[in-house]
Amino acid sequence: MSYTPLPIGVDDFEKLRTNEYYYVDKTLLIKELIDKKGEVNLFTRPRRFGKTLNLSMLKYFFEKPIEEKSNKYLFAGLKIMECGEKYTGKQEQYPVITLTLKSAKQGSYSDAFGRMKEVISDEFKRHRYVLEHIELKADQEKFYQIMSRTASEAEYLTSLAFLSKCLYDYHQQKAIILIDEYDVPLENAYYTGFYDEMIRFIRSLFESALKTNAYLEFAVITGCLRISKESIFTGLNNLKIISILNEEYGEHFGFVEEEVSQMLSFYGRESRMDTMKQWYDGYRFGETEVYNPWSVINFTEKIYSKEDAFPTAAWSNTSSNSIVRDLIYHAGKEVKDEIERLMSGGCIEKKVHEDITYDDIHESEENLWNFLFFTGYLKQISMRMEGVNRYVTMAIPNNELLYIYENTIEKWFREEIKVQDFTVLYEAMFGGETEVFEEETAMQLRKSISYMDHAESFYHGFLLGLMANLREYSIKSNRESGDGRYDICVYQDDVRLAPVLLELKVVRKYTDLEDACDRALQQIEEKDYTSGWGEEGYTQMLCYGVAFYKKNVRIKLMQKRLR
Predict the structure, then answer these.
(1) I need a labelling partner for 321 at 20 to 30 A (CA). Which of 216, 294, 455, 530 fits?
(2) What's the pTM value of the predicted model, to 2 decimals?
């Protein structure tokens, strides 16, 4: 059997179907939209969860053929075609306006507005067949100016409503409006510095298209967040919001377990289901548990080529991690404790609210946690009501997200180390002042964000990080010496300066710290880690046994003469 390509980066439904890519059938979204009859439907889902492809699918299903080119063949054999005339009878019956705002990530408002003009212009060009049928010369001129990008900003603010009317006059049928990634330009504007200008533009564009538009059949909008009603969807009483907390539409964005299992079976890789689940499962939309589709498709392609390929964090390369970074970089003790709990597999409970603006994100830690939750960096374990407030118990969804947190923490720690002065710590370590060395190390440990408290690898990395500012020294880790491998050795080429050997232990009880230090020093002796240094010309070594229990450290010194 010939290979069926996986649709990595393919978000155009026609391209996917005509090129015979593997397709996870999500066409029952059409049925649910028709049944629910929402006039303006806002779907908020994390990035890379199939929103763009689903909107493309809706366009090809509902849109009246342009130039008599029918797209019905694209839906042959798909689930929607088995649902009856009530649904198939609406196929190719409407004019459709479709916009994606994901490309409006520019460095200034003028550049972002220019990109929005281009996107709107392209949609007018797609429907230019109506131009010669517009009766009023003024409207013809307006259409042409928007299409050619010479219209005023005010004309673009009402452009979608205007195009809806033009399409209605031509087809005698109200239009469907599809807007993808509506909040991307807002997020970009917030971080780039022109948020208020972009808010005004998006608010006016949406108000004319969705609130006062007599020529609207229905609209579907997608984004990552629900930007608060007061700032974007002002007075939009016909808005239906479907967030990750809603039970409706849960299975239409992302892959449910049966779909992932079928994909692996199709490619003969059923044996990798456990890895797939550990890395890419764990998201929850309403009561539906889903996998990250982008990551599933990428991993399936990898293991098809090499069955035992390692999983990778594909999502981290496509989704903005700036809020994770901001939370970690500015965390106080309470937030650090909560991050540690999450990293070690635990849960936290937070009050959630769906009304949020980018402008509000940094006003409180609560808003940061809400942002992480609604953008997919945390998953829902359970939910309870207390009065009028909802509280969600949250956890890190899977190994892919754990990787993102770990790498963000490691980067933060490295950057923190670079700007600190560790002179006192270094002088104490090289001078054999054990109490000061211990006190300075403990102070830095309390500032850090740890995870896997009983894993030696964390503390090993922590100590290596502390040594990073020793520019004139060599730092060796896990090197063979004597009859084993020591943990860390710090030394200079000047043999008059004693090398420092650090052997680490991690304990499960605070009372075991002293004994662990003694065991570390005993290991240095028994494994003869100091052998060979005397032959290099060194006369003594400072050997430290370092024991950790959570944010506590104990250090003992053994001075070793080498000749």
Answers:
(1) 455
(2) 0.85
